[in-house]
Amino acid sequence: MTRLIDPSLEKLSSMMMEMGNTAIECISLAIDSYLEGKNTINEVHDLSDSIRIKYFEVEDLIFDMLLKYQPLADDFRLIRSSTEISYAFSRFGRYAYDITQVRDLFGDISECMNEPLIEITKKVKHMIKDAVQSFAELDIRKATNIQEDEAFIDKIYKERLPQLIESNNTKCALAEALLLRYLERIGDHAVYMSDAINYIVTGKHKPSQKRIDSHTNF
Amino acid sequence: MITSETYSKSQIYSDSFENDSEKYKMIAENVTISYGGVPAVKDVSMKFKEKSVTALIGPSGCGKTTFLRCLNRMHDMTKNAKVEGKVMIDGIDLYSKEIDPIYHRRKVGMVFQKPNPFPTMSIFDNVTAGLRLNGVRDKRILNEIVEDTLKMAYLWDEVKNDLKKPAVELSGGQQQRLCIARALAIQPEVLLMDEPASALDPIATQKIEETIIELKKEFTIIIVTHNMQQAVRVSDYTGFMYLGDLIEFRKTKKLFTDPKNDLTAKYVQGQFG
Amino acid sequence: MNNIEKRQEYRALFKQNVQKRLIVDKIVRIIIISCVIAAIIPLGSILLEVFKNGIAAISMEFITQVPGSVGSGTGGVGPAIQGTLIVVGLASLMGVPIGVLSGIFLSEFGDNRLARSVRFFNDVFMEFPSIVLGIFAFLVIVLVLGHFSVWAGAFALALIMFPIIARTTEESLKMVPVTYREAGMALGLRKWVVTMRIVIAAAKEGMVTGIMLSVARIGGETAPLIMTILGSSLFFANMNTPMDALPLRIWRLSMLPYESAQLQGWGAALVLIFIILGINLGLRTLVLHKKETMQILKTLKEKIGGRI
After folding, report:
1. Residue A1 forms part of a structural domain
2. Does B161 touch chain A (CB under 8 A)?
3. Does residue A179 lie in a domain region?
């Protein structure tokens, strides 16, 4: 039976998936080109922009649905979490752009590459893919993976930053510091996403420890 | 036999009655209501907290109005209606043989779907009908109660200069608020409302909802409604009934955002009924 | 695309009928109005006849004096007027309460076998020819007591009255929507309080109409009075003697071959009509427009009080 809200829900779903896939593309491009020394700031900028535009459209659609249909139960939770998740996507785009900007401003930084950095970027790419897939399938089992990945990123972040102070290559140190920062934020949002997906499926608000910490440690 | 264990373990009630030290104004236990042998309400049990609003929702014919009406023994008036089970107010069973239903019906007031002020009486007389016809004559007390209840029903300002006007000259929304004042005048402790705003326009509906929120501070209210957003707005607990059974009974926000029962989820999302 | 065509098709169907229907409408309207006129004409002409023929007889003497010698054209119908008022009044005192209470019983408590039988007998009773009821009263009271009396007359008329009142009361009460009874019950009022103070108040108009119909009916009954109060030329003495009444007097006067007697008959008929009209209007105003009457009486009292 088609309800009035169903076409809107479908539209929301397709827009979200589009955003998610674009976000994956965007971040992968940004990270890869950073590692390879390429400057892809324009392409990434365009991708990020398209995500941002979609974000506003999604917000519009969500509030339109609230206005018209006053959704309840599953519909309600889906729509509510979609605000959080679409924001996360828009952040992914933004941070991807920030990453390419580092390359753009600093010039060629391929000599700054190191193992931990490569590890961490792999994890981030993996995390984002997990998050988007988890949302597409409403599968909360991936949540634990995401949280583990995120914890790892956090660890590296906390270890590397103090080490960078000792570095004598200012350019590399700064570039890496910025990169780590952006990657750490991407990780945060991926975890927020998984919390939101958890809410859709279980109906429970379970702010992860990460979220509580990020609010208290500010 | 319903025990506190039943409430805490049952799928129907989930987490609604964790803190059992709360005061329950009214408790319905194993209520079964049949018309001419055909059951309309099957073994339904609910607890109503003091000074709270409980909403009953469900598709047409699910038994919610039938159940509501048994809470003040309105079925005594219906032929062929048989009510089994207990309905207790402050621990006293309304349906026990020793209790005079009239006395306890005064503890439980009722407001009906279509406003029904007595057509031959003025506003003042309508509000005081339950008092005068029960022998209360003191003019001072009547005046006090009229002002008090009309204020509670958010009608005082609109009619205070014209209390002798025939009640039928008021608008639908005003008439309904008059009926609320009339029900409150007999100083009930529980107020039953059968879709009180369904015959009214949106502004009148809003006023009724405001009234309910205000009344909640003093009375225990049970309201049958078709409008789920209304239930979300005014009630603390909601019970979902279907075909005579109580399917789910929980804190309102929980029931509407995260129903445990599939049937409930389907109903509130408009997937049937 | 198909839909639009179909719609045009359907719409074309309607067009032609309208003209014909307007004409039919006019014709039916004319027929109905003529029927109404046809129904009113006899009524109107009766009233006119009675007025025309009877007005000449009306005078103070006519209304207050006892009848003169037969055929003399003197005297009046004083006793008859008095008798009608007494007998109808007494019959109402007996018939109205019983009728109203039966009506209440049938309406409010009448969902069982007993009520069904009562209702059935009531309807049958209503159809009894009044002369049969007169004979019954004759047998039960006149023969037993050994003489004609006002009691017997009032009794016979009450018998005619109460089935009508019971029926109309029941119907009027049934017309009051259930929701008012429910509201009353929900206020913790006992059933009889709800019935008396709320339901009856709402059914007032219908009940009064019913009562007025039966009063008008018995005001004109002749046959039962023949066998019970017999008739007389004297004013009221006591309850146990024969008494005159307007229908009786009209009947007797019209049988006489004298023109003067006929004239008096017309006059009596006119008086009877006025009395019934008067009771009707009076009761209606008193019961239905209580507030206005109270207002008027109050202002009158003030005016009179001021003068004194």
Report:
1. no
2. no
3. yes
